[in-house]
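ok new one. same drill as before - structure tokens go in, u give me an amino acid for every spot. 102 of them this time. try not to just spam alanines like last time pls lmao
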């Protein structure tokens, strides 16, 4: 099979925009041929323990580690504190930072 993957991208952003995250993930995969690493948590009715949150946070940073870039879902320019930390982490690793909005 021919290697046609352009890059591996991790989606970052607030889960209040999870619909936009999912839509952009599909778009990036189909139109740009990116492998998108998308967090699958954020269920409204799931009660996350502190340990769950810690594990999921660590796993998200591992996604950034193995990615070529992060794609920030910044609807109306919004970037929360956790996402700001993820951007800084990606910058320190020399990852490309892509944004939904300028």
């Amino acid at each position: 099979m021919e290697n046609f993957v352009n890059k591996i991208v991790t989606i970052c952003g607030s889960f209040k925009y999870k619909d936009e995250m999912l839509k952009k993930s599909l778009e990036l995969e189909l139109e740009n041929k990116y492998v998108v690493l998308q967090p699958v948590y954020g269920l409204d009715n799931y009660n996350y323990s502190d340990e769950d949150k810690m594990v999921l946070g660590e796993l998200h940073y591992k996604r950034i580690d193995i990615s070529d870039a992060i794609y920030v879902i910044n609807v109306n320019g919004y970037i929360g504190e956790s996402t700001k930390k993820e951007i800084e982490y990606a910058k320190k690793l020399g990852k490309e930072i892509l944004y939904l909005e300028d």
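DSSP finds three helices and four strands in the chain. and btw The mean pLDDT is 90.
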